[in-house]
Amino acid sequence: MSGLFRAAVPSFVQQKQKTMNQQLRTILVTGGNGLVGARLLPRLIHAGYNCRALLRKGKEIPAGVSAVEGDLFNPASLAEAVKDVSAIIHLAAVFRSADNDLIWKTNLEGTRSLIAAAKAYAPGARFIFASTSHVYTINNPHPGREDDTVDPQHAYPASKVAAENELRQSGLNWSVLRFPFVYGDGDGHLETLPRHVIAAKFHPAMRMSTIHHRDIYTAISMALDGIMDTRTVNIADEAPTTLYELLQLAGEPMESSSEPLLNPWYLHSDSSLARRLGFQPVVRTVYQAVQENIL
Known about the structure:
- Helix content is 38%, strand content 16%.
- The protein has eleven helices and eleven strands.
- Strand 5 (126-132), helix 6 (155-168) and strand 6 (173-179) form a beta-alpha-beta unit.
- Helix 5 packs parallel to helix 6 (155-168) and helix 7 packs across helix 9.
- The longest helix has 22 residues, at 100-121.
- The two termini are 16 Å apart.
């Protein structure tokens, strides 16, 4: 495992790690047993971070992580989790659910509770918030940019936008990372894509931005080092891929079409700001992931 993670870390991140490791900073991660968190935490541990995870009773975490039992729905339980941390990585969220009330409660009210706890018990901590590129409008005239006006209508992206705004107004040292479709490390996420694409009746030529779990770590590492402080940043790899190709990779080819493509920029995010800040994806395309057998 150590060799795998070492190969996945770019040189500019490796150079930072020595200094950061010496500082022995404690990081709180929420959603540590979720799709992203379960793959991010081992990389943070391997890099030398002292990681603490907020967990509900009975949940498991990767080796080397300190567990603190608590619940975003119970603000009083968060004091121990945030006390004395240098950074908070807030991943916990509800995404695909028919329960819109649960989505809003988790993604907005849960974030408010964590912000309040941070202000009370760790006011100097960096608060890194995982958001989504789904916030961008379906008929955007260009790939979604961080300075676009956003007003999503679905509960998940709308709740994320509301939580982003709460964080910006909190007075904390914040950063918002907007991630596109996340895949890799055998998470099975790509295999779920066909049913959502077919249900939405998306055009096969539509291109979607993607990011591998290895580069979730790349971006989070930069945010932990302060590079993204007080910024909202789109994170994506270098090659948005057509849904037609992605479904082929998922093993369920979709019907081809030569009909005109409406709303060509939906699901496509502009990550030029991240590049200017120094972000360089380790996994540049989904086809690199295929070649390296890390889907």
